[in-house]
Amino acid sequence: MFGRLFERHRLHLREARYVRFALLLATGVNLLTWAFTLWFVVPRLHTSPFFALHYTIYFGVDRIGAPWKLLGLPLLGLLILVVDAWFSVRHYEKDRLASAGVMTLAVLLQGLLALVAFLTILLNI
User: Fold this and answer.
1) Is the model's pLDDT at 36 over the cut of 80?
2) What is the pTM of this model?
3) What confidence score (pLDDT) does residue 15 get?
4) SS in 3 state form for the chain?
C-alpha cells in the first residue's frame, strides 16, 4: 500500500524501516480515533442536537456545538498525518534523522489527539 509512495522517491523499504513503522502506527491510531468517534457520534445524531466540546475546571462545559464538530479532532489528525508523511518521505534521502523525528512527532500527536477525542466523548456520556 505504501510501497508506491516510497518507490516514487527512490526509497528502499528496508532502509526506511523506522519511518515505515511510525507511519503505520500513526495511521492505525488515526483510524482508531475515527472509528471510536464515529461509533459515538453516528447513533446520537438524531437524539442529541448538541454535544459538549470543551470543559474547564473553573467554568465546567464552556463550549457546545453540533455533533459533527466532534469529527474535527480525527480530521486534524489526518491532516497532520498527511503533511508529516509527505515531509518525511520527501526529505528522507537528504536527512534521515529529521524524517524519523517528524514521524515520531506524528505518532505522538496522533496519540494526543486520540486521548483528547476519548476524553471529549467521555464528557458527553
Assistant:
1) yes
2) 0.80
3) 61
4) CCHHHHHHCCCCCCCCHHHHHHHHHHHHHHHHHHHHHHHHHHHHCCCCCCEEEEEECCCEEEEEECHHHHHHHHHHHHHHHHHHHHHHHHCCCCCHHHHHHHHHHHHHHHHHHHHHHHHHHHHCC
CA separation for the pair 68, 26 (Å, rounded): 23
Domain coordinates of the chain in residue numbers? 3-123
Residue 107 grid coordinates: 505518532
Q: What confidence category does residue 54 fall into, taking pLDDT thresholds of 50, 70 and 90?
A: confident
Please state, in angstroms and rounded to a whole number, the distance separating the CA atoms of residues 121 and 74. 13
